[in-house]
Amino acid sequence: MIHITINGKVVQAKDGEMLLTVIRREQIDVPTLCHHEAVEPSGACRLCMVEITKPEWDGWCDYVTSCLYPAADGLIVNTHAPKVNELRSSILDMYLARHPKSPEIRQLAAEYGVLKTQFEEIVDGNNCILCGICTRICDTMGFHAISMVGRGHGKEVAPPLNMAPDACVGCLSCAKNCPTNYIEYNVSNGNLSIWKKDFKMAACKECGKTTITKEFAEYLSKNRDINIDYFENVTNVTEKN
Amino acid sequence: MKEYIGVDGYQALAKVLHKMTPDEVIDEIINSGLRGRGGGGFSAGKKWKICKNIKAEKHYVICNGDEGDPGAFMDRSIMEGDPHGVLEGMMIAAYAVGAKEGYIYVRDEYPLAVTHLEKAILDCERSGLLGENILGTDFSFSIKIARGAGAFVCGESSALMKSVAGEVGEPRATYIRSVVKGLYDEPTVLNNVETLVNVPTIIRKGADWYKSIGTKKSTGTKVFSLVGKVRNTGLIEVPMGITLREIIYDIGGGILDDRPFKAVQTGGPSGGCIPESMLDLPVDFDSLTEVGSMMGSGGMIVMDDTTCIVDVAKYFLEFLVEESCGKCTPCREGLYQLHKLLEKICSGKGEMSDIEKMERLSENVMIGSLCGLGKSGPNPLMSTLKYFKDEYIAHIKDKKCPAGVCPELITYKILDNCTGCMACIPACGYDAIEGKKKEVHVITQDKCTKCGACYAVCNFDSILVS
User: Fold this and answer.
1) Which H or E run includes B296?
2) Contact across the interface for B337 and A45, Cβ inside 8 Å
3) The predicted structure's pLDDT at residue B372
4) Domain A2-80 carries which CATH code?
5) Distances (CA, A) of B194 to A35, B272, B293
6) I want to staple B296 with a disulfide (CB 3.0 to 4.6 A). Which of A159, B5, B267, B318 is the partner?
7) Is the pLDDT of residue A163 over 60?
8) How far, in Å, CA of A84 to CA of A79, rounded?
9) Do B364 and A95 count as a contact with CB atoms less than 8 A apart?
């Protein structure tokens, strides 16, 4: 165990544990848009940046993404230093210019006092904030069905060649973890469609209610050693729509 | 290869393998003061020392040949002209840090460099300079070429290593340095082409000889790519500490057509513009950084009074917006917005509040971005705002482009000294010029697209751009 100071309070932390984990354990509110506990941090959104310093740094301080910065003994962290707040509202301002229609972005920006962007709005843009949670989850699941395509301002999330991805099993992890609910999918009449690909759903043998896609059920059955019947019982698998 | 050996090639390798321990090699390089030529300026020897001292299964040496700055081609000429020098530098680095495998990352736009390096590697393999038990010692080393795919950001260390490993070239947070955890998460030494090619000479002639060239903190020589509005353009190798004035006026032969000097841009897209008042600045790592520019990889673009500084900033920002990998928000969105603001100013729609807006946004992009591309991205804007604020104000308040570049802010007029030669009439593709022989011609402003064709063909300086 080591000790670090967050906003004036000395707290315990594990050596090497990421700062954001410690900050959130202390119930301090630091916003994030690209962070998801299930996948490796990426440091893309930059909202979790904090000010850090150490007594031996002679008053010099650094600004780092807390999701990727390992806690070290004696570190002094300020999660809401003036410069940090300014940086966060500036980043949210950039997000707001790019995604003016996203309710999630608008709400978060408003919390940091940004009600209207000072930059040029991109009116025909979409709500994909390029946080990469979907692609990282898909990679972690082992499917690699979608990825970031292109670069810079024109970057987007897409399946290979923008065609229905072979590797996708319709698990919906991407869509359900999208912070701005951008990824669309459709469930109707026992079918599911996502990323231009259509899936048949497995159904409960008792009540006929659909559970998960047959491809996902087969994948789980094969890879997690679960009998396929398990997925045909709605009490085991509840579709959370 | 014979030619290289003929000029003492591979003598340095033989010297280190037979007569020096890895620590002695590292000490010699540290003592020589050799600093990274890729832009960062970190001590090459210290980097090797950190890498060597990390216990790991494998160590790697990578040569960064992903030269991406517009107008810079120092590394290309070294890889094409002296591939063995690069290989020997890598071998010595590998011996020093204990690496068995090395990669040369070459940008795909350099096919000749790849061909020459491939040939050099093959020749070395055939003659036992690469492979197992090199020169009869325990040292074994192999080199592979990794080709880039055209992304500027892949010159950044962590993105480069991802690209070598076959992943998408996106940078990662650099709180853990690549020298500790680099390629395939193993300690990796990444040096620029020019840095490595200096190594054999330092070993052969000694650190003290190397230190005798250049300044105390920036030793040796540096290759610059001198381009722009100077008489002599091309690659130059100069001792560190030489002044900008010497480079531009002595070596470069002064400004084209003897026009007034305006600024010199150093350090590539992440560097800055240096004004005339600083022409006597010595060119070394620290002096350039101090004035808000940087050494970078050695690009040097000279500008005269016909260059619009706002347009220059816009050009570099456009380049960076294009080349940003798009992973982190400040770089992806912030640089885009900075470019938009510059476009607005160049088109005459700028407001004074835009300057403050750009300054604030620049600072946030610099602090907030993930990698060096974003962190230094606002430099071309910040340095020009610092030294040429008047020109920005002229664009905003007076709606004028003093250099006569921004099309929306200039007008073309025919002066009374027009001889009526009619040369400009067919040159204009828009029928905007009317006039009879031996009578002063007139430009119809509504039709004029400000393409400058009339200005180019007029032999009597009768066309005024204002």
Assistant:
1) none
2) no
3) 86
4) 3.10.20.740
5) 39, 22, 20
6) B267
7) yes
8) 7
9) no
Span A119-143, pLDDT tens digits: 999 988 899 999 999 999 999 999 9
Could you give the ipTM of this predicted complex? 0.93
**What's the maximum distance between 2 C-alpha atoms anywhere in chain B?**
86
Q: Which residues of B touch A (CB under 8 A)?
A: 151, 153, 168, 170, 172-173, 175, 321-330, 332-334, 336-337, 340, 357, 360-361, 364, 367-370
Chain A residues touching B323 at Cβ < 8 A: 151-152
pLDDT bin (cut points 50, 70, 90) of residue A11 is very high
pLDDT value of position A238: 67
Q: pLDDT by residue (tens digit) across B352-385?
A: 999 999 999 999 999 999 988 999 999 999 999 9
Over chain A, what HEC string results? CEEEEECCEEEEECCCCEHHHHHHHCCCCCCCCCCCCCCCCCCCCCCCEEEEECHHHCCCCEEEECCCCECCCCCEEECCCHHHHHHHHHHHHHHHHHCCCCHHHHHHHHHCCCCCCCCCCCCCCCCCCCCCHHHHHHHHHCCCCCEEECCHHHCEEECHHHCCCCCCCCCCHHHHCCCCCCCCEEEECCEEEECCEEEEEEECCCCCCEEEEHHHHHHHHHHCCCCHHHHHCCCCCCCCC
- Owner of token pair 């992903």: B66
Q: Where are the domains of chain A?
A: 2-80, 84-125, 133-240
In chain B, which residues have their Cβ closer than 8 Å to the Cβ of A102? Answer: none
Q: Averaged over B407-420, what is the pLDDT?
A: 92
Point out the least confidently predicted range of A87-101, A183-197, A206-220, B287-301. B287-301
Domains and CATH numbers, chain B: 2-211 (3.40.50.11540), 221-304 (3.10.20.600), 309-398 (1.20.1440.230), 411-465 (3.30.70.20)
Q: What is the pTM of this model?
A: 0.89
Query: For chain B, first and last CA: distance in Å?
Result: 58
Chain A residues touching residue B357 (CB < 8 angstroms): 118
Could you tell me where the DSSP H helices lie in B1-110? Answer: 2-6, 11-19, 22-32, 44-52, 74-81, 83-97
Q: Residue range B109-116: average pLDDT?
A: 95
CB environment B96-114: b (16+ within 10 A), e (fewer): bbbbebbbbbbbeebeebb
